[in-house]
Amino acid sequence: MIWIVSVLVFWAAAWAVNIRLSNGRWAKSRAVGLIVPALFGLTLLVVWEGLVRGLNVPLVILPPPTEIAVKIAGSLPILWVDFVQTFIKGALSGYVIGCAAAVIVAILVDRSPFLQRGLLPVGNFVAALPIVGTAPILVMWFGFDWQSKAAVVVVMVFFPVLVNTVEGLAASEKMQRDLMATYSASYWQSLWKLRLPAAMPFVFNGLKIATTLALIGAIVAEFFGSPVKGMGFRISTEVGRMGLDMVWAEITVAALAGSAFYGIVAMIERAVTFWHPSQRARG
Amino acid sequence: MRSVIPILTVVAAILVVWYGASVWMNSQWTLDQAARNNQTVTFSQILTDTMAQKRPKLPAPHQVAEGLWQGVFGQAITSKRSLVYHAWVTLSATLLGFAIGTGLGVLLAVGIVHNRAMDMSVMPWAIASQTIPILAIAPMVIVVMASVGITGLLPKSIISAYLSFFPVVVGMVKGFRSPDGMQLDLLKTYSASRSQTFWKLRFPASMPYFFTSLKIAAAAALVGAIVGEMPTGAVAGLGARLLSGSYYGQTVMIWAALFMAAIVAAVLVGAIGALQAVTLRRMGMRQ
Fold first, then answer.
1. Which chain A residues have a beta carbon less than 8 Å from that of B7?
2. Are A151 and A141 in contact (CB under 8 A)?
3. What CA–CA distance (Å, rounded) separates A40 from A44?
4. Contact flag B226-A132 (C-beta cutoff 8 Å)
5. B201 to chain A nearest CA, in Å?
6. Do B147 and A61 make contact, defined as CB atoms within 8 angstroms?
7. pLDDT, tens digit, for every residue of B223-234?
8. Is B194 contained in some domain?
9. Residue B66 lies in a domain
């Protein structure tokens, strides 16, 4: 009982503070912009912990956050091995290959408006399909190790990046292209100096979407067979053994890896497209 | 209309590559068989054999088409071998989850737009959650819910709902905020209440965003339902079909299920697109 009451009190207090802060004088400041969501997240954790302990929820249904943290601290070597297997070997290599292939294909297609008109709708269509479904096929083709996971990731990230790059290459304005023509710039010069830079906001949009897809692809592909390591493998086997604290530990790692991956790509975007209005407005 | 020929060309090119690849990938098996029987095979024999293997590495397009046709029209639709039956199992979970996720998402977006505290505390998490591989929790949700006695449609729908929830929240917040300052000021001069502003300006203005996020949410919900069927050894549904195909090496079955999933996704997204076109035209918002 005491757990539940204190949880409710904490919740009410945090909520009051948040309302205060977000309607107060400093609402627009950066610090408040960080404190309010952080407090909200902390509240969620406290409510979770308190309810699980207060209502005596069994461990096999929902472990409290502290248990998960203990599990993470206690099994760092396993988590690291899984992380390397799934993220570095599977997701990252597939991401690099898939995105590079998509950008190259987009540049090749770019020379032919005919192909563009055909490829864009097809690419958009394929991008909306449940491509994770190809995982069993690719696992059959490339074996159980990380190669098949990378292959799934390649297929998953290819189309979103392709569609965005093709769109981006058409993004430079006619005036700008005319200017390049008056300089008598060759196709490659105008591509390199005008159209690729102009396409970068679109390309990075695709790259950011692809970060999440890459992790999902690598994890789900492991449900179809993998060596005895990897985040997806660990999740599916630990679920079978009712080791839910380990599952949550892996999910935490996956969430952190996903956010960090996205954040890094977003940071590169800021450095590359510093000239774009959406980036300048923040500074 | 003028893009029909380019699209057909691209599709034809894909088919040609596919046929080529299936000859190339299946020929190994043909050659092995021949070597075992001490025969030599000519190229045309390889060609005909690779088109009609029982368990090809990569089934040729016509084999997949035949498998699909068999699955859809060759069985009674209640039969366990019918793809329509499996697609319906998956689709019902998808639709239920899609409805739950969209409903909750719109509600949360309304709250976020009207309450600053909620906006500042929830919105960063809603955006951050899109960078997280949520699908990884699918097996856990299924097993945990099964251990409390909830099985069948609902666990899969919850995964679908969870996946379709965040795109809707983010899209709708953008949509409700899309009226510009002039329009909001105009309603203020009419001394419109908050609910009047919502129903007469914000809600109609959000419609284009609504349909765009619905399309994303529908595709995500379908993926959620399919993946939700995989880890538990479910017996029905397209995901189960993919899984049993991969256990027994029935490649044609996998490909047929995959194409069925693609068709379901296309129908879902297409239906939303049609609804969008009609609604926006009736509202005079057609671009």
1. 117-118, 121-122
2. yes
3. 6
4. yes
5. 24
6. yes
7. 888 888 876 656
8. yes
9. no
pLDDT at A283: 45
Residues of chain B in contact with residue A237, where contact means CB-CB under 8 angstroms, are none
Nearest CA in chain A to B130: A212
Query: Per CATH, the architecture of A72-280 is what?
Result: Orthogonal Bundle (1.10)
Task: Say yes or no: B158 and B22 in one domain.
Answer: no
Residues of chain A contacting residue B122, judged by C-beta atoms under 8 Å apart: 37, 40
Q: Per-residue pLDDT tens for B151-199?
A: 778 888 888 998 888 889 988 998 898 888 899 999 999 999 988 999 9
- Is B77 inside a domain boundary? no
Cα A207 to Cα A213, B115, B196: the distances in Å are: 10, 33, 40
B259 and B191 in one domain? yes
8 Å CB contact of B144 and A33 = no
- The tokens for B277 are 């076109």
Say if residue B163 is in the same domain as residue B256: yes
Look at residue B158 and tell me if it is in a domain.
yes
Question: Rounded CA gap, B174 and B119, in Å?
Answer: 12
- B contacts of A242 (beta carbons < 8 Å): 143, 147
pTM of the model: 0.83
ipTM: 0.79
CA distances from A87 to A81, A219, B6, B139 (A): 10, 9, 38, 19
B87 and B37 fall within a common domain: no
Residue-level pLDDT at B138: 80
How many domains does chain B contain in total?
2
Buried b (16+ CB within 10 A) or exposed e, B49-76: bbbebeebbbbbbebbeebbeebbeeee
Residue B124: domain span: 83-282
Q: Tens digits of per-residue pLDDT, A162-179?
A: 988 988 888 888 899 899
Residue B208 pLDDT more than 90? no
Domain ranges of chain A: 2-57, 72-280
A215 at interface of B, judged by CB pairs closer than 8 A: yes
Q: Is the domain of B90 the same as that of B148?
A: yes
Same domain, B146 and B223: yes
